[in-house]
Amino acid sequence: MIDEQLARVGSPGRTVVMGVINATPDSFSDGGRFASIDAAIAHGRELVDQGADIVDVGGESTRPGAGRVDTDEELRRVIPIIAGLADDGIPVSVDTTRAVVASAAVDAGACVINDVSGGLADSQMFPAVAELGVPIVLMHWRAPSDQMDTFTHYDDVVADVCVALAKRRDAAVEAGIPLDRIVLDPGLGFAKLAHHNWALLHELPALLALGRPVLIGASRKRFLGAALSDAGGTARDVAHRDAATHAVSALAAANGAWGVRVHDVVGTLDAVRVAQAWREGGTW
Ligand code: PMM
Hints:
Blueprint: H1 4-10, E1 16-22, H2 25-28, H3 33-49, E2 54-58, H4 71-87, E3 92-95, H5 99-107, E4 112-115, H6 125-132, E5 136-139, H7 157-174, E6 182-185, H8 194-202, H9 204-208, E7 215-216, H10 222-227, H11 242-254, E8 259-262, H12 265-280
Parallel strand pairs: 1-2, 1-8, 2-3, 3-4, 4-5, 5-6, 7-8
Helix pairs in contact: 3-4, 4-5, 5-6, 11-12
The structure holds pterin-6-yl-methyl-monophosphate.
């Protein structure tokens, strides 16, 4: 079952396309904060014009090795962008591991919390989200970004991730978040080597068997670059990974993913629409 609020985002009759807005220092490096906020809001509108169902706004980089930003800075980065997009009626999720940021984001108009730590980074996250009454994405996470590359040992990555996600799902329910407001995400690239990511994609049905919608975030990630290495073994650079991202989105959609989190919406929307037509097999 899908909660009414999640259904607002999540029932376009195909896999949901979540467009990414990273309000991180790189995006603030040119021309000052206000210009960047305006640019981020404009980019969010563009993603929706291109067909994104929801825009995910994050103010803290989660790339491997990244350090933390303080709470006030995270709030300064994301809240004006969320408010600007929500004022336009755009569904917005906030990519945060902090309960206070989640609460401020919902006050500013966000309608989904995307917590890459699955509630582990902040013990107040689940109680806050239970109170806020919004859906939450629980991603598989083992350690903060500056440590996660040392947490890549799994006995059986698919089984281990499923068990860990089931625990987070149950802990969220225990804290008062209704089961039908929970989305699960295997956390591709988070404390995972390339072969772990592929195993998780290959075994998407095992994740779906946890009984909740599944979000897949593969967009432009390192493991795609590695899969597209040239004859000399050099990985494909990040600027040329969108076709691979589209392929993953199509396959994820064809295999039952609820949503895909991507930077490039245009090609992704085509991919998930093709997957949907394929799944339906001409029965419309
Ligand atoms: N990946 C990143 C950030 N947030 N959220 C979810 N739910 N799933 C993900 O896979 C995910 C995420 C890191 O990717 P980026 O730096 O390219 O945004």
